[in-house]
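F.,

This is the one I mentioned.
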């Protein structure tokens, strides 16, 4: 029996790490067909049900940034999900994708966390830079013309501050010098690397009730085995939790 392949090798091979790193205002790319077209539909048809998601609303972020309201479901190996999603995540955990991300971000090791976000009407991701623990993300867009009118919004917006805004601030979208909205239609994703100025967000969504912006996110975290061993040693000596919840969900 042939192994199902979700990652499109032709698309991965066409992404040049040097060009990616040179992209302004920070490294990002918005490829199409990163997932093979023949299997993308299987993922769309077998998404987890909203009833399994945890509401995340009204949580003020650090630096006074507005809440990023959405429903969240974290991936955990062994959870009850459809086989296409199980196979897709296992392929993302494999050497092909891991080596690709290491080359793209120029790091020796990387670990991943995975989660789905469903965002309803009125949801917004205020401009922010990711925490220092993250070194990048890939966001897979999962809406189709059958469940989404593209005029409702939902695009990740890459923001250029011209080097003016420190990351510990809460700027508005209009405070930036330029913005670049990702394309989200027809099997698109956006992949970016974190830097000190890696501002991005999602403008307020205006959609009918019971419609949702649907994405699957891979979070990249640099993994340094020696540093992790030292952290665990300190926690052991102080009686702290040996493995945090985020670390437990890293693969």
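My design for it:
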């Amino acid at each position: 029996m042939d192994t199902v392949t979700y990652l499109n090798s032709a698309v991965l091979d066409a992404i040049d790490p040097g060009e990616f790193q040179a992209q302004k205002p920070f490294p990002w790319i918005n490829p199409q067909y990163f997932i093979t077209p023949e299997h993308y539909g299987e993922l769309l048809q077998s998404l987890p049900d909203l009833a399994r998601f945890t509401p995340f609303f009204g949580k003020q972020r650090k630096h006074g940034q507005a809440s990023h309201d959405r429903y969240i479901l974290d991936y955990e190996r062994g959870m009850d999900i459809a086989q296409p999603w199980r196979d897709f995540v296992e392929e993302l955990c494999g050497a092909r994708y891991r080596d690709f991300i290491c080359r793209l971000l120029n790091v020796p090791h990387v670990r991943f966390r995975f989660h789905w976000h469903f965002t309803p009407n009125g949801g917004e991701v205020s401009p922010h830079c990711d925490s220092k623990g993250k070194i990048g993300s890939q966001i897979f867009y999962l809406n189709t013309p059958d469940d989404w009118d593209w005029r409702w919004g939902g695009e990740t917006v890459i923001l250029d501050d011209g080097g003016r805004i420190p990351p510990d601030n809460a700027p508005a979208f209009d405070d930036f010098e330029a913005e670049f909205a990702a394309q989200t239609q027809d099997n698109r994703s956006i992949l970016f690397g974190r830097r000190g100025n890696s501002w991005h967000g999602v403008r307020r969504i205006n959609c009918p009730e019971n419609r949702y912006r649907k994405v699957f996110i891979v979070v990249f975290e640099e993994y340094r085995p020696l540093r992790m061993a030292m952290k665990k040693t300190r926690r052991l000596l102080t009686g702290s939790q040996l493995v945090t919840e985020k670390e437990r969900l890293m693969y």
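The chain has a mean pLDDT of 93.

Talk soon.
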